[in-house]
Amino acid sequence: MVAIRWRKHEFTWLQVLTHLSALAPFVYLLWDYFNDNLSVNPIQDITFRTGKPAIVLLVLSLACTPLNSLFGWREAIKLRRPLGVYAFLYVCLHLTTFVYLDYGLDPGLIYEAIFEKRYALVGFAAFCLLLPLALTSTKGWQRRLGKRWKTLHKLVYITAPLAVFHYLWLVKSDIRDPLFFGALVVLLLLFRVPAIKKPVRTAWMKLVARLRPARPVVKPPTGPRPLPNLPAAAKTPAARPARTEVKLPADQPE
Fold first, then answer.
1. Helical pair 77-96 and 118-135, crossing angle rounded to 10 deg
2. How does DSSP assign 47-94, residue by residue?
3. Which of 42, 83, 116, 244 is the most buried if burial means most Cβ atoms within 10 Å?
4. CB 163 within 8 A of CB 90
């Protein structure tokens, strides 16, 4: 795959497209904000336009490992970290909208909202679980934590369902989108179970083998094998040396 070099870093076109696509909702939101294109309820509009990209990017980050382990798409692993970091960025914007625009940084109102509204409590719990994952997403922390790094980042398996329940309880009426994301999360988590992962991978490999065009079978040639390209002198048998006869002297008369 063609790569783009920038200073000491190297990015593929897929990575560049991922970064641009992840930032697009935020840029579009800023454009609508400064051009007064938000809805009649701007706070609710910002809440949904920061929350939905967060759950979309979180689900996409969960999909990277199955795409690699089941289908052999190695490029997906390189996208897992940026997708998770961008998801945390939108979660922070979503939480800022809640505590600043919606409740004016009032500690009493915020405390009351979090512990009285179940969607707020679940959403805050998801944020608390994502925070250590975002802070330790660098390679330096990965080296420091060693094997504990993977154990820590398995918290995303709890965070994703919490995010789905937060979305489900927040919308209240039209729950089609939350149910869709919930089904995706369940499917992606099931693909990590060895009893399901192994047969799915086997079935995929068989399907790929069937769809792959068969190589033509080359039959070995029949008859005498031709001599290799050797010089002409080497192909002809060497001439035998002529036999020389030794004449003995005739017997002398007595």
1. 130
2. HHHHHHHHHHHHHHHHHHHHHHHTT--GGGHHHHHHHHHHHHHHHHHH
3. 83
4. no
- Euclidean distance between the first and the last CA atom of the chain, given in angstroms as a whole number: 105
Closest-CA residue to 46 (of 63, 29, 31, 58): 29
The Cβ of residue 128 has, within 10 Å, a number of other Cβ atoms equal to 12
**% helix / strand / coil in the chain, to the nearest 5?**
70, 5, 30
Q: Is the pLDDT of residue 241 over 80?
A: no
- Whose CA is closest to 61, among 26, 97, 22, 9? 22
Instruction: Tell me the pLDDT band of 131, cut-offs 50, 70 and 90.
Output: very high
Nearest to 33 by CA among 51, 22, 45: 45
pTM for the model: 0.79
For residues 95 and 89, what is the distance between their CA atoms, to the nearest angstrom?
A: 10
Cβ neighbours for 179, distance < 8 A, ≥ 6 positions apart: 168
- How many CB atoms within 10 Å of residue 167? 23
Rounded to whole angstroms, the Cα distance separating 108 from 152 reads 32
Closest CA relative to residue 50, chosen from 91, 105, 102: 91
CB 202 within 8 A of CB 159: no
pLDDT tens, residue by residue, 145-177: 888 998 999 999 999 999 999 999 998 778 999
pLDDT digits (tens, 9 = 90+) for 80-109: 999 999 999 999 999 999 999 998 899 999
Q: Measure Cα distances from 237 to 115, 227, 233 in Å.
A: 101, 13, 8
